[in-house]
Design goal:
By secondary structure, the protein is mainly α. Helices cover 46% and strands 6% of the residues. A three-stranded antiparallel sheet has the order 1-2-3, with no helix packed on it. Strands 4-5 form a two-stranded antiparallel ribbon. It is globular, with a radius of gyration of 25 Å. The chain starts with a helix and ends in a 6-residue tail after the last strand. The relative contact order is 0.09. The model has no long low-confidence stretch (mean pLDDT 90).
Length: 294
C-alpha cells in the first residue's frame, strides 16, 4: 500500500500535468494532511463517515466546507480512477449550505481615511491598484515594471483566476504613482526569497492590517467591491465593468456590487404615498406624502 507522502506526490504530479496553479496544489496538500491529522487515519483507508465528521466541524463556515468538500472529492475521484481505491467515500458527501453574503464594498470615505492614515508608499500603491484597477491580491503581488506598457499606460496581468493573460488601461491615479516605481523588476519584491515577489496572502495581510489601524472593518478584497460598485454607480455599462474586472460572467458582478444608500433612498421615495389614519382620534386622519420625483 502506498504511503501518504508517495500518494500525495503522485497526486501532485497529476495536478501539475493538469496545469494547476502551485498555490492550488499547496493548499490541497495542506488540507489532506490536516484531514489525516484530524481523523487519525490514512487517506487510503478513510471512510465516508470519517470525511463527514471532518466536514461537520462547527468551526468551519459553509463556504469553507464547500471548498473542502470539493478538494476531497477531487482527490478520491482521482484515486478511484487510478484504481488506488475501489470505492469513492467522497461520492455522496452532504452538500453544505453556503451563507448568502451581501456585497460589502469599501466606501469613498473609508478609502480616503485609510489613504490618509499614514500608510507606507508600497501599501498605498497596493490600495490604489485594488481600488482603481480592480486587481486581485495575487495580481498585485506579481506586478513588475516589465508588465507595464509605459507608452500605452496599460498593465499586463496573468496571475488572476484561470491565469488569463490580459492588458488593461491604468487609472490616471495609479499611473501618476507608477512614475516612482522601477521600469524593470518586481514592484513588491519578497523580503525572504531573493529574486521573487511577495505572495498574494502577504498583500491581503498588509491591507487588512492597514484597515485595522485606520479603524475600518474591511479587507483588501472589499476594495475590489468598491471598484465594481463605483463603476456601475457611475453608469458604466455592465459589459465594460465585467471586462475591466476580468470576470468570465456578468452574473458574478452581483457578488461585488451594492447600490449606494443614495440610490436606494431615491428608489424608496418613488413609492406612492398613502393616507395613514390616526387611530387615537376617530374621524381624523393625516396624509403622509412624499415630494414628487423630479
Amino acid at each position: 500500500m502506498l504511503s501518504t507522502p508517495d500518494l500525495l506526490d503522485l497526486w501532485s504530479a497529476e495536478m501539475r500535468a493538469q496545469h494547476c496553479r502551485e498555490r492550488t496544489i499547496r493548499e490541497r496538500l495542506y488540507l489532506m494532511r490536516a484531514l489525516e491529522r484530524h481523523t487519525g487515519g490514512e487517506l487510503l483507508t478513510l471512510t465516508r463517515h470519517d470525511l463527514i465528521r471532518f466536514l461537520g466541524r462547527r468551526d468551519l463556515s459553509g463556504r469553507t466546507k464547500q471548498n473542502y468538500r470539493s478538494h476531497i472529492h477531487t482527490l478520491y475521484t482521482w484515486m478511484q480512477d487510478e484504481q488506488l481505491r475501489l470505492d469513492n467515500p467522497a461520492a455522496r458527501l452532504p452538500r453544505p449550505r453556503v451563507e448568502k453574503r451581501e456585497p460589502n464594498p469599501v466606501t469613498r470615505e473609508q478609502l480616503q481615511r485609510v489613504l490618509d492614515s499614514g500608510v507606507y508608499g508600497a501599501t498605498r500603491m497596493k490600495i490604489l491598484l485594488y481600488a482603481f484597477n480592480g486587481l486581485r491580491a495575487s495580481e498585485i503581488a506579481a506586478i513588475a515594471g516589465d508588465a507595464i506598457d509605459w507608452e500605452g499606460r496599460r498593465v499586463f496581468t496573468r496571475e488572476g483566476k484561470g491565469r488569463k493573460e490580459v492588458w488593461r488601461p491604468l487609472h490616471p491615479i495609479v499611473w501618476r504613482e507608477a512614475q516612482d516605481y522601477p521600469r524593470a523588476g518586481w514592484w513588491f519584491p519578497s523580503p525572504i526569497i531573493d529574486g521573487a515577489h511577495v505572495g498574494g496572502k502577504s498583500v491581503s495581510a498588509t491591507l487588512s492590517a492597514a484597515f485595522k489601524r485606520a479603524g475600518i472593518e474591511h479587507t483588501g478584497h472589499h476594495l475590489r467591491a468598491f471598484f465594481i460598485t463605483e463603476l456601475l454607480e457611475a453608469g458604466v455599462h455592465p459589459d465594460v465593468a465585467q471586462h475591466l474586472a476580468r470576470h468570465s460572467s456578468g452574473e458574478t458582478l452581483r457578488e461585488y456590487a451594492r447600490p449606494s444608500d443614495r440610490r436606494s433612498r431615491e428608489a424608496l421615495e418613488r413609492l406612492p404615498s398613502v393616507v395613514v389614519p390616526i387611530t387615537a382620534a376617530r374621524g381624523r386622519r393625516r396624509t403622509t406624502e412624499l415630494p414628487e420625483a423630479a
